[in-house]
Amino acid sequence: MTSNKLPQSVRIREVGPRDGFQNEPEVIATSDKIRLINLLAQTGLRRIEVTSFVRPDVIPQLSDATEVLAGIDRPEGVSYSVLIPNRRGLENALAQRDLFDETNFFLSASETHNMKNVNRTVEESIAGLEETIPVAVEAGLRCEGVISTSFGCPYEGDVPVENVLALALRLARAGCVEVGFGDTTGMANPVQVRRFFDEARERFASEGLGEVELTAHFHDTRGQGLANVLAALEEGIESFESSFGELGGCPVPAGATGNIASEDLVSMLGEMGVDTGIDLAKLIEASAEAQELLGRPLGSHVLKAGPVDWHR
Ligand code: ZN
Fold it and tell me: Picking from 36-40, 83-87, 286-290, which range would have the lowest pLDDT averaged per residue?
């Protein structure tokens, strides 16, 4: 149970170039994507989700996956991941195998959200991934599985923790060394998060899968994202996903916007003495570039207010 002792350091995966750019109404030019990813790769971020191999007719915003991967810098120590929807997506990605390091497989824990998102039942999705993930493992790729609507579904309401953990364990047994839990439409609260990760860690340990990295992916749709981060930290979670500028969200339902902002996360962690290895000033520069490019104010708080440090 909760120790209230925070970890010394955490790992952060930047998902803005995928989760964020995917949800912009306009298609961002490939050269602008490359420029922004290169800025992010200079901040100290070691994990960046850069694009997705989804069908271009479904998500035209990411139809330049290959060009983006071929164009970005590859600084030492930065691990690039791509989002894979299914077997065909993996095969397209594997044609570019040398250009990325990790794959991220996703499904939703709720039937309705999964159906609206990928037009499959949850069982069809997980069964497909159980065949696909071992192929990625075989290709030497590190695999992460991400479960959307882990903390609630906008169509179905509560999502039983048992259902989420059953999927998580199946992803891990299929070869995922990391499982991410997405609060896709910002329904989680800190008390729920604490209970969830307490149970998740216990289940993974009791199944002999205690080594699997459990990652929290919160959205700030209702302003509870960072409170949920603290709750997860207090349950020993040391891996988070966030998006620079607070870009991103979810294609369904409309309006479910806002991953927690990477600079808000890095700022809070730094102030609490938790090391992220990320240079906050450089991260803010990357977000400011994105804000200028998109031509609208982004949701990030620290981008507006500046780091606490500037006021000392
Ligand atoms: Zn997200």
Answer: 83-87
- Cα of 218 vs centre of ligand 1, distance in Å, is 7
Q: Which residues are catalytic?
A: 250
Distance CA 19, CA 249 (A): 7
Identify the structural domains of the chain with CATH numbers, from first to last: 11-305 (3.20.20.70)
- How confident is the model at residue 60, as a pLDDT? 84
CA of 250 to the centre of ligand 1 (A): 7
Q: Are the CB atoms for 196 and 155 separated by under 8 Å?
A: no
Burial call 234-245: b when 16+ CB within 10 Å, e when fewer: bbebbbbbbbbb
Task: Classify burial at 137, counting beta carbons within 10 Å of its beta carbon; exposed 0-12, middle 13-18, buried 19 or more.
Answer: middle
Against a cut of 0.85, is the pTM above it?
yes
Task: Label residue 250 by pLDDT band (50, 70, 90).
Answer: low
| Model pLDDT, residue 251 | 57
pLDDT of 269: 98
CA of 185 relative to ligand 1 center, distance in Å: 8
